[in-house]
Amino acid sequence: MRDAAAILAGRLAARASRALGAGGGTTVPGRVALALAPGLIGRLVARLPGGVVLVSGTNGKTTTARLLDGVLAAAGRTAVHNRAGANLLPGIASALVERAGLDGRPRAEVGLFEVDEFALPAAVEATRPLVVVLLNLFRDQLDRYGEIDIIAERWARVLAALPPGATVVANADDPMVADVAATWAGRCLLFGLDDAPDRGGARTLEHAADARYCYRCGVLYEYGLVALGHMGHYRCPRCGRARPAPAVRARTVRLRGADGAFFTLVLPDGEVAISTALPGLYNVYDATAAAAGALALGADVATIARGLAATAPAFGRGERVALDGREALFLLAKNPAGFNAVLRTVLDAEAAPVVLIAINDLAADGRDISWLWDVDFEVLRDRARAVVVSGLRAEDMALRLKYAGVPASCVTVERDPLRALEAGRARLGDGERLYVLPTYTAMLDLRDRLARQGYLRGFWKQ
Ligand SMILES: [Zn+2]
Question: Which of 35, 172, 204, 452 has its CA 20 to 30 A from that of 198?
Fold first, then answer.
């Protein structure tokens, strides 16, 4: 009875929040339901016949969960999924409440939840997952989280608390994630990249902030291949500890600029050509992670390929928006590693791109924007034709570009997001697109304003 009342109250809260235009109502219903019926998440997920999958990591949670949802759909399976990045417990509860009958039975087979890396312990405790996907650990929002070593320690404790039959899916190319996964005695499926295009010979890390040390010896890893940030083929020169061989691999990766990627997905029992509309090497990682997660859930090779190919970018993550005859491509960038990855994608796609960078410093972005100095904006110096900076910290961003050597004549400061979009659009030539690189809340703000102007639907309706 109590759960039924909580579900009902959560649904009403969702409706009210939408009617008031208070965003997507992605966490309020869960908060209301959990206040009325603590432990509701555990009771609802216990009735999901296919169990729960959790996806966590600094970068790529939303896209990986979305890809996994696509593969489940291709397999004819239904998932309850916390979309729109509501990745703390209330967001999970909201998704469940939305899809549950008043009898407490979810109208879905599998629970698929992206989880904030710091909230993973609580999510594991609440959902007793069948599969946990660990993507990566990058420096992110230091004022909120502190050192990533603390998260790695927490994750290792989390794994010790998993149900014995659970499968851990983990990134072999991220030393810290692979170390965490190695503590799990149960079934483990590692994923990674066999090669990376263009920079296939890269042996050096982009930035000191990405450096990773062998946890036994404290010496820097040596890299045979640097794929992205600190991810790649690493080896400790002292003790020989090295990247473990992954069972699920992407090989012969070919990036198609902003239009997606091709690669060969190698699974334990076969390989298949994958074409994805998601741009950038980071999305190849996400697709490979989703494939490994789907494999853990029993999907076959053909279904995985179909599901990955059919998945469109999540909002703000490679999403395209039509702007009066031109196109804007949104590439969310919320930390140094993520920013470097999208800058690389933009420069691979266009010789002289027009870029809009929108930086906010609200709680969800991280209040401390000193991380902007860890992003390699120097790559824009001789390449960007125009850069429009916007957001609450537009002036700080303009200063960062000045120190990066981007000529002042290329840079326009426009704090108002719509005027910034217009300023960027005005610089485009025929057939060119505007690359929009926003932090999280700047992205929500831009999309919200575009939606109000009739350019797109509200993201919560997707
Ligand atoms: Zn070592």
Answer: 172
CA 161 to ligand 1 centroid distance, Å: 27
Note the pTM of the prediction, 2 decimals. 0.87
CA distances 461 to 84, 106, 122, 313, 451, Å, are 10, 20, 28, 15, 12
Domains and their CATH numbers in the chain: 50-92+110-310 (3.40.1190.10), 317-461 (3.90.190.20)
Q: With contact defined as beta carbons under 8 Å apart, do 170 and 134 qualify?
A: yes
Let me know if 22 is exposed, middle or buried by CB neighbors in 10 A (0-12, 13-18, 19+). Answer: exposed
pLDDT of residue 461: 35
Question: Ligand 1 centre from 445 Cα, in Å?
Answer: 45
Integer Cα distance of 182 and 430 in angstroms? 52
CA of 235 to the centre of ligand 1 (A): 8
CA of 264 to the centre of ligand 1 (A): 32
Name the residue among 337, 414, 401 with its Cα closest to residue 371.
Answer: 337
114, pLDDT greater than 70: yes
Going from the Cα of 294 to the center of ligand 1, the distance in angstroms, rounded, reads 33
CA–centroid distance, 146 to ligand 1, in Å, is 24
Å from CA of 226 to ligand 1 middle: 18
How many angstroms is it from 216 CA to the middle of ligand 1? 5
